[in-house]
Every structure is written in structure tokens, then in C-alpha cells.
Amino acid sequence: xxxxxxxxxxxxxxFQIEDPYFxxxxxxxxxxxxxxxxxxxxxxxxxxxxATGFSHAAIPTIGAWAGHIFNDSPxxxxxxxxxxxxxxxxxxxxxxxxxxxxxxxxxxxxxxxxLGRMTDGRRIAVIVASDITHAAEHERHLESMMNCLEEEVSxxxxxxxxxxxxxxxxxxxxxxxGDALTLSRERLKNISRRALDVLExxxxxxxxxxxxxxxxxxxxxxxxxxxxxxxxEQNQGRLAESLNQEITYLLATIKExxxxxxxxxxxTMDDLGLMATIEWYLRQFKRFYRKINVDYRTDITESDIxxxxxxxxxxxxxxxxSNAEKHSDADRVRLQMGxxxxxxxxxxxxxxxxxGFDVKEVFSPKDPLSGYGLTSMRERCExxxxxxxxxxxxxxxxxxxxxxxx
Length: 406
What we know:
Among the domains are: about 5-130, PAS domain (Beta-Lactamase); about 265-405, Histidine kinase-like ATPase, C-terminal domain (Heat Shock Protein 90), CATH 3.30.565.10. It is about 50% helix and about 20% strand. It has eleven helices and twelve strands. It has helices at about 20-25, 45-50, 60-65, 75-80, 135-235, 245-265, 265-270, 275-290, 305-330, 360, 370-385, and strands spanning about 5, 10-15, 30-35, 40-45, 95-100, 105-115, 125-130, 295-300, 330-340, 345-350, 385-390, 400-405. The strands form two sheets. A seven-stranded antiparallel sheet has the order 1-2-4-3-7-6-5, with helices on both faces. A five-stranded mixed sheet has the order 8-9-10-12-11, covered by helices on one side. Strand 11 and strand 12 form a beta hairpin. Helix 8 (about 275-290) runs parallel beside helix 9. The longest helix has about 100 residues, at about 135-235.
């Protein structure tokens, strides 16, 4: 084994190297090692010994020194040392973690360079170390802060995305509510407009009946009485004919007045209630339209029906039977009332065996007068918060079902 000798504070093996260069390496303020191609450390300078506390005797070879290195990738520094003497790897560097003899941790960055050959032909290389302990700690601190910042940004991003999602849902819900409100307003306008139209139509109907029926009857009575008054004057105050004909006219006029009044609002509705009024109306209907058989069934009583709903039920029945008589050419009509929806609503069913019709065609916007009665029935249900369903097919009759919440 070659002799070891101290040189200017450096612990070295005996080999020849020009003194100025050797002294420069020995006195360098940074850790320097000289290693032979056989793995022996030929020199460790004072800065290396001071920084690590290791003497040449403690780490005689590069392998012995590598045993004190605690790197995250041992294969990486092993590869670094194995390629010390490869010219194309001169610029390769390595970051290592090591401990001083007193246990203090250090972080170095190693760089290497080839120094040529010794007199005996052995190749030698120099390893220069830079202490980056503080810089690495600063980097770790910055990395930790960056990770914390990234985590915070990630959490904030998630919170922001959650908030954005919630806002989008709220905006969507508000838009849906706004659209529904706009639609409700339009429907309310249409219902109000239709209510005015219905009211005006009812007024026209009453006006026409008063003019054509009551007015004509009163005019006939007036002309008859005037004629008899003239004859009475001609007969010196004596009336040759009786007033039986005029009395008959008056009785017919009174009866017609009662009919018109009943169509407007039956007095039985206020005096006896809805159920009695329905029975009265069905008797009148059967008397006028004998060929139509009405099968009426109900399992509800007068007290089950809210007061405000009674006139709506009556008008729907009145309009439904009137349509069956005028348009369906039906022989049988089924009228049924009962509870539905867990006794929270009243179901009103009107079904006939008539010729039926095309629902889409009847409700076509091309003919604004078509389906007027059915439309009024539907609007009465909707005003009360109920629903109206109609089914009809040509040759298969018509089925009307109104659901009214109690």
C-alpha cells in the first residue's frame, strides 16, 4: 500500500502532482476529493475534513465514503461514482445527503473532473462539493409552502366550483320559476280574458232570451189587451170576450221567466243545495230529452263539498249534458261523482256512448269558436286549482273527467 503523508493540513497518499495545483486543491475553501480509478481516495482537503469530521483513515476509499451518504436514490450516486472516469460524463452532477461524524445532516452537490494519470498509469479524478444545505432547506420550505398553496388553491377551487355549481342551479331554478311565473301570468290573462268573454256571452244569451221570449210574449199580451180595450170602448164599456187567452200568455211568460232565471242560477242551489239542484236539473233534462238515459251515481254528500265549488260542479254538469244532447247523438250518459286522491279531491265523470270527435280538431286554434263549451269547463276547473281531462274518438263516445281539490 502507498504511504500516506500529511501535506499542508491535507491527508493524502504519496503520489506525484505538481505542488502549485496540489496546494490549490488542498487549500480550496470548498470540499475536494481526489480519487483513483481503483476507488481509493488519494486526497481529502481540509475543507472536506472540517465539513464532515472524517479523516482519510475513516474513509480510505470512495466506497467507504459512499456508505455515509443517505441519498433518496442510492443507485443514482452509485452510478455517479461508477462513471467518474468516463470523459463524456464530466459535466454530470449529483445531489447527496450525508451526516457529519457528530450526526449533523448536510446536503451537498457533487461535481467531477478528470485530472489525467499518475506516473504509474492510474487515472485520477477530482470531486468538488458545494454545500447547499441552507439552499436545500429553503427549497424544501418553498416546496412545502408551494404544496400548501397548491392545496389551498385546490380547496378554494373546489369550494369555488361548488359555489358556482350551486349558483348555476339557483340561476336555473330561478329561470324555471320565472318561466313558470311568466306562463302563469299569461294563463291568468287568458283566463281573465276568457272569463270576460264568458260573462259577455252569458249577457248576450240572457239578452236574446229576454228579447225573443219574454219580450215577444209581453208584446203579444200588450197587443191583445189593446185590441180588446178598443172593442170594449166600441161596445160602450162592455167586454164581449174573456181574458183567458191573455192569462194563458202571462202564465207562459212567467214559466219562461223562471226557466231563464233557473239557467242563470237555480233558486234550489241557495235554498236546498247542490245535490238537490242536480236532481232537479236531471229531472228537467229527462223531461225535455227523453231519448237520453242519464245514469247518475254519487257517494258524496252536500257537506262534503266546499261552498265555492258547488256552482262550478253544477256548471260543468250543465255544460257536459248540454254538449251530449247537442253534439253526441248519445243514447246513454254516465254521470258519476266521488272522492279521489285520498279523499282530498272530488272527481266528476261525464261519459257518453255518442259518436265522439277529434279532440285536436275541436281545440284547433284555426276555429276560435270551436270547443267553446269544453274550454269553459276546463277554465272553471283551472280557476279552482283543479284539472280537466277529455278523451274522445270518432265512433267511441266521449269521456270527461274533472278533478277538483277540496
